[in-house]
Amino acid sequence: MRFSPKTVGVLAAIVTVAIWTAFIVIARATAHRNLTPLDICLLRFAGAALVLLPWGAWLVWKRARDAAPGLAPPSWLGLSPLGFKLTALIGSVGGIAYAGLAYSGFYFAPAAHASVLLPGTLPLSTTLMAVLILKDRVTPVRAIGLGLIFLGDVLVGGASLLRAWTDEGSQVWKGDLLFLSASTCWAVYSVLVRKHALQAVQATIAISVFAFVVYVPVYALLVASGALVTQLASAPWGEIVFQMVFQGMGSVVISGITFTKMVQHFGPVRSTMITALVPGLSALGAVIFLGEPLHWNLLAGLALVTVGIVFGVRMQAQRAAAIAPDLIADNARPTRAKA
């Protein structure tokens, strides 16, 4: 049974939003327990590597077997299906930098700030990166959608952010900057996916190969030299296994593939507009699962984000569909030869 590209794109969006929402809620529940941010990075990369390194090796071998003699496709270390330069580029930005910045942000700022500053700012940062890298144009419809999403995110967490920045002696602003930096890294990755027309599985494997090969030896060296403190030895095995499964196999393998599929269908800007649902949904999840209070600003912010997504995604698609027949008709008209 084959699904249409539209169905695949919509399903990919649903799965991505669900996993990203779960990521924020789980981070709220497990922040400051046993593991350090860099410990979680290690478990994230190790968990993903258990699945993606064998998958990458098989994919590279299969492509080399099927290629014409002397025309072997690019690969790196026999594990990444992309060449070294592209593997290093997306692996450093979308793998090591994003995870390191995001998890370190939780050390200084509460997860509530992450729900606003990680997925909430993605539409704006991705739009900026698309303009700079892809020379994209911001249409009025998209600008309206971005404005509504921004207002919704401000309603969800603006007061909390403002208090953190005005409290004397607070270190929360450091976490906020780390979250914003992580969001920018993911925005760059999503634009690179579109620019290089990367396939979902190949891009996710390349990120994991680079992160595992580079991060794990450096982490081990820093721990062995005493330059880095780790809590892995004292953490419960259940927590270690859970983080490897959820952060590695869930957040990297599954949502990495579905997010890239979503970018292939919707484009980088509209994809990150869809993920702007995550702040409101994660806040609702905290109400349901963690017993946090339900305030009016949460519901109002979620409503504004939803309307913004409709403007930015649905209206833009309708406009493109309306323009397409005219373009086809123009291309079909015979042109007069110049005298």
Any key phrases for this structure?
339 residues; mainly alpha; 0% strand; globular
Describe this protein's structure.
The C terminus is likely disordered. The chain is mostly helical and 339 residues long. The N and C termini lie far apart (55 Å). The protein is built from 12 helices and no strands. The chain is globular, with a radius of gyration of 21 Å. It is 78% helix and 0% strand.
What is the straight-line distance between the termini?
A: 55 Å
Order of helices and strands: HHHHHHHHHHHH
Q: What is the mean predicted local confidence, pLDDT? A: 83
Separate helix tally: 12
What does the overall shape look like?
A: globular
The Cα radius of gyration reads 21 Å
Tell me the strand percentage band. Answer: under 5%
- Which class of secondary structure composition applies to the elements? mainly alpha
Largest pleated sheet = none
In total, the number of strands is 0
Helix percentage range: over 70%
Low-confidence stretches: 320-332, 334-339
Summarize the structure.
Helix content is 78%, strand content 0%. It is mainly alpha-helical. It starts with a helix and ends in a 7-residue tail after the last helix.
